[in-house]
Amino acid sequence: MSDYILEMESITKTFPGVKALDDVNLKVQHGEIHALVGENGAGKSTLMKVLSGVHPYGSYEGSIVFKGEKSQFRNIKQSENEGIVIIHQELALSPYLSIAENIFLGNERQSNKIMKWQDTFSQSQQLLDQVGLRESPETSVMNIGVGKQQLVEIAKALSKNVKLLILDEPTAALNETDSENLLNLLLDLKEQGITSILISHKLNEVSSIADSITILRDGKTIETLDTRTEDISEERIIKGMVGRELTSRFPERTPNIGETVFEVKNWHVYHPQRSHELLIKDVNMKIRKGEIVGLAGLMGAGRTELVMSMFGKSYGRKISGELYKDGKQIQAHTVSDAISHGMAYVSEDRKTYGLNLIDDIKGNITLANLQRIARRKVVDANQEIRDAQHLTETLNIKTPSINQVAGNLSGGNQQKVVLSKWIFTEPDILILDEPTRGIDVGAKFEIYSLIHDLAQQGKCIFVISSELPEVLGLSDRIYVMNEGEITGEFNRGEADQENMMHYMTGAGGK
Amino acid sequence: MQTIIHLFRNNLREYGMIIALVLITGLFWILTDGVTFTPLNLTNLILQNGFILVLAVGMVLVIITGNIDLSVGSVVAFIGAIAGVLMINHDVPVWLAVVLSILAGAVIGVWQGFWIAYIGIPSFIVTLAGMLIFRGLTLYLLNGQSLAPFPESFQNISGGFLPDLFGGSDIHILTLVFSAVISLVLIYLEFNRRKTQLQYKFEVVPVWITLAKLAILVFVINWFAYQLALNEGMPMVLVIVLFLIVIYTFIMKNTVMGRHIYATGGNKKAADLSGIKTKRVVFGVFVNNGILAALAGLMFAARLNSATPAAGEMLELDAIAAVFIGGASMAGGVGTVIGAIVGGLVMGVMNNGMSLIGIGIDWQQFIKGMVLLIAVGFDVYNKNKG
């Protein structure tokens, strides 16, 4: 009856304290490639989770009509039975099993619980031919590259008689050739009548193969563009993605910038496991006294990898390049070297990398610099209490006592504890990785004020953030990264969200 | 009354353990018609369990870092065998044999710590291998036979008593002096802690609770010392154990090293990114455990007055059980030396009491297993609820 294979209408999904999706509409026509774009956190993944039943029927508001019928999926199994298959960014393959076993995992060719290997292999072969993958079905998945693994995932989806294929950032981990093959395959599948939803940050891909594009921003549908009826440029898409106004979410500040303090030159880093894969390519950066420098980029651009490799080689291998502080070359082979050179790194994931959740506030604050309160390796407990209390008051950490266990604090207060911990090491260079992730607006303002204070004290501050307004609002200068390279550099005032997005998606630099 | 309930709720883990100890001792006191509390039996209790307590102190450090050591039972046997071969077969002086045995323990710790910390093999596997390796080496050293007897001065490690400097005839005066000094130190520490808490405006318990707590503690210590004094006084084993408790509690609570050990177990990744050399911490903890296992091995051999191939079998499980009954967590980051000692005493009192009332080894094992399960189960239940 209708042209649409999928109609999602006024979908609203709330998590405690956050409205992740607010009255979102998504209509996908039969046999098209429909792109879903938006910034990190715009709600793309949540929307797909609602569709596939990860967030079961009843946990959201709104209606989903698939193939003309109302759907009420309670789990992934039900949506897969109807022919909706999601391929996630992190592939869900079992590395030690063969291609054929992976294709039919959970859906085994069997008779009375006994594996039918003949069918498994012959049917896998057909599917592999269909996706154009020339590998034996008996090969272990861990012995083929990421690009080919992606094809195995698609073959797996085809084996489930897929009607609607959803790909979440399928080309994020692929090189140019593999990306191109994959996109061509999507066009082939379209010929065979399979509808796809493509989630991607790479706007050149989107504008080249998508038939229509839905843009999400802050959990709302902004617009749906049809590339068949009008010519959609990348600029047009970017405008839709970032159209938000910068309000006064940032405290006032007059920068007071001095001499260059810290420099990185010719920095190269390889992947920690796949040691031939170059992740960070020839990065050169510098930062001056009292300066706040933003590092912008999309997920996977290599920002965290870059700063962690600088911080005592905490990430990657075969690291080459030089670090300079106050004009002199420094060596930071271990984290304690880096700390003693005045570096501090506040990780993006405070629970995994920042805090000992079962220890109290004071223990967490002093951990990275215990010698400051120790005499002959014996900790002065009174000094510790005084220092921890002082920082708790300065940073306005809301807690009944410094003996409170860190795991019981709210996200904003945990973040302040991590910041206190690194302020306690008396650093000259502070690297803040997503300092306001998962924090409410009020606490964000406090963190911004704190960052300003630290800069005022003459510290150099790197800020990594996936929220463009945050980078623009905080930074005196911004480096933009894409695929492990610095693709652009802007001073305050030169940058706006649109031209930065160009460099972040790789559309501007090259 | 409210305060007591509040206090109890907040310290359930700590108090639960002590209450368990009190209940179990009380139970055996009734079941044995008071034999448990005779001076002779209390002395025996210490002598029988000294080496388990020493092992528990080493083990709690290992478990706080999130690891485990299954090899200590075999190490106890192996060190006993080394000491036996040195002293009995080769007439090496006792002091030298003791030093060499402790060194051997350190080397064992270096060996296991190397594979675990620097190569990255899980401690379960490395120490399971160690359990077999050192049992095998023990059999080889002893040719499958027992070696006995040890020189008398060596036996004193385990069976000896502190000489009475005050020359008491019916009662051991030095022991009483000792317990009085300990009581005064405890009172001083408690009030000092209270003073600090008040100074920094922390919440403190009402003064009468502190006084009541101290009164009970002081009474128990002095009553216990009095009973020992009525027998032969303070065993050497108790001196060793008390010394270890003081040293290791201080290290874990007040030194940078202790903080690093807790931080490594609490969140290894965060500790790494805070500049803590977590590999070195894990390595050090295993070396330490090797040394303490060697000490326990010497105490065990001295008590048995022989080096036997089957020595220390299942001892690792007693030590591990003591640590977990004492409130440590399998996931690491949690546990105290005192807790491990209390846990060790729970196991010890049960062993002793059940033997006194003549329960067979079959039911003894069964009951010990159930107590371990219930103690840790109670802990997990509370944590999930809270």
From TrEMBL, chain A:
TM ranges: none
Statement: the UniProt record of this protein carries the keyword Repeat: yes
Subcellular location as annotated: Cell membrane
Full protein name: Protein AraG
Principal cellular location given in the protein's record: membrane
UniProt domain ABC transporter: residue ranges: 6-243, 264-508
One of the record's GO molecular function terms: ATP hydrolysis activity
ATP-binding found in the keyword field: yes
Organism: Gracilibacillus halophilus YIM-C55.5
From TrEMBL, chain B:
InterPro entries to which the protein is assigned, alphabetical: ABC_transp_permease (IPR001851)
Keywords, alphabetical: Cell inner membrane, Cell membrane, Membrane, Sugar transport, Transmembrane, Transmembrane helix, Transport
Keyword Ribosomal protein: no
Transmembrane segments: 12-31, 43-63, 70-88, 94-117, 124-142, 171-191, 203-226, 232-251, 281-300, 320-346
Membrane topology listed for this record: Multi-pass membrane protein
Localization per record: Cell membrane
Organism superkingdom: Bacteria
Protein name per Swiss-Prot or TrEMBL: Xylose transport system permease protein XylH
